[in-house]
């Protein structure tokens, strides 16, 4: 028989009663309220059940490190069969006055600058699965890093972990010459958006904004000053809006560009699922360390929901509400809140 694993002790004290997995499962199950107090209230009735201060200590004790996420995602993906999508999203904190990491950021959801925490994610997708494999919290006042610095860090980490993406997909915010060169230097293909005012030239013509150049929907090879040749596609939406996609794969055709464009939307679905089903925006702990750990646990909670969706076909919504539905069913079997029985004369 195997020897039992000795209890882990912290600073000479008894082993912690709550673990990261306890908190992650709480995030999956909780419908609305996300707090250490609520996590303690819903614990099963058992000896030495963790109290609220145990969960509070957990969020301050853990080392905020995306490596824990990678350790869980690594066996779930094929490192050469998907695309790497990098984008950021703002976690709303409209009433946060004393919470660390909160600042003013642009929100694509609100189409305005809002108070919140900016999260940058590297997502792996093969068209059937979407797994966050790395992330960074943007907080320039705390670490001095820009979004482009974090973008570079995510690329380096992906390469060092042996990822071999079919393409790296990212928004026009990250389409600087330096970032385009970083992806190219790794030997990878990029597919990104260019703004209409991006200066390019065709053959030896005049350098002008893309909006003024004769860019074909099937793709036109242009010269980007400071970088070199890319192939640009002009896409006109039914409402008349025009967008431009660019790639360093000069032989890419429009059908393949369309495939990569569809795959890039996977990160928008991920952002929606993360916010709706893991409580990532709802933690009110003040310390920056606690917020980082809560965000990391929420992302890992999403991985569990996505793995369940892929292996069973049950959506994130259905999986979340199955937990709540079972709780409602249990209550209806034994309702607690009733009016007194009527008094008979």
Characterise this structure.
By secondary structure, the protein is α+β, with helices and mostly antiparallel strands. The chain has a domain of 216 residues. Strands 1, 2, 3, 4, 5, 6, 9, 10 and 11 form a nine-stranded mixed β-sheet that branches. The longest helix has 25 residues. The protein is elongated and about 95 Å long. It comes from Urbifossiella limnaea. This is Transposase DDE domain protein. It holds the Pfam family DDE_5.
The SS-based structural class is alpha+beta
Round the Cα radius of gyration to an integer and report it: 24 Å
From the N-terminal CA to the C-terminal CA, the straight-line distance is 70 Å
Shape: elongated
Mean pLDDT: 89
Oligomer: single chain
Task: List unreliable stretches of 5+ residues.
Answer: 1-13
N-to-C SSE string, H for helix and E for strand: HHHHEEEEHHEHEEEEEEHHHH
Instruction: Provide the β-strand percentage band.
Output: 15-25%
Share of helical residues: 25-40%
Main beta-sheet strand count, sense and barrel state: 9 strands, mixed
Q: How many helical elements?
A: 11
Got a strand count? 11
Domain Transposase IS701-like DDE: 16-210
Protein name: Transposase DDE domain protein
Pfam families: DDE_5
């Amino acid at each position: 028989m195997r020897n039992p694993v000795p209890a882990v002790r912290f600073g000479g004290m008894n082993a912690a009663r709550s673990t990261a997995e306890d908190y992650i499962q709480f995030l999956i199950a909780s419908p609305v309220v996300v707090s250490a107090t609520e996590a303690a209230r819903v614990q099963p009735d058992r000896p030495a059940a963790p109290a609220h201060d145990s969960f509070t200590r957990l969020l301050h004790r853990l080392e905020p490190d995306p490596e824990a996420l990678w350790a869980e995602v690594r066996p779930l993906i094929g490192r050469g069969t998907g695309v790497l999508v990098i984008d950021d999203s703002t976690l709303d904190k409209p009433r946060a006055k004393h919470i660390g990491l909160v600042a003013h950021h642009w929100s694509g959801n609100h189409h305005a600058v809002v108070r919140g925490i900016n999260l940058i994610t590297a997502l792996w997708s093969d068209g059937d699965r979407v797994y966050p494999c790395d992330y960074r919290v943007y907080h320039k006042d705390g670490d001095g890093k820009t979004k482009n610095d974090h973008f570079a860090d995510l690329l380096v980490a992906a390469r060092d972990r042996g990822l071999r993406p079919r393409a790296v997909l990212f928004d026009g915010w990250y389409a600087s010459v330096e970032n385009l060169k970083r992806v190219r230097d790794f030997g990878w293909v990029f597919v990104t958006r260019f703004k209409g005012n991006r200066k390019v030239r065709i053959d030896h013509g005049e350098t002008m904004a893309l909006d003024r150049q004769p860019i074909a929907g099937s793709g036109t090879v242009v010269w980007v000053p400071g970088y070199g040749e890319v192939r640009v596609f002009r896409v006109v939406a039914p409402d008349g809006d025009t967008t431009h996609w660019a790639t360093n794969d000069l032989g890419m055709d429009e059908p393949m560009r369309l495939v990569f464009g569809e795959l890039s939307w996977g990160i928008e679905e991920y952002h929606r699922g993360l916010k709706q089903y893991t409580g990532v925006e709802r933690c009110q702990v003040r310390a920056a360390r606690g917020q980082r750990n809560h965000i990391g646990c929420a992302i890992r909670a999403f991985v569990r929901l996505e793995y369940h969706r892929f292996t069973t076909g049950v959506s994130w919504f259905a999986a979340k509400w199955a937990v709540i539905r079972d709780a409602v069913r249990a209550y209806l079997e034994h309702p607690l809140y009733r009016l007194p029985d009527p008094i008979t004369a």
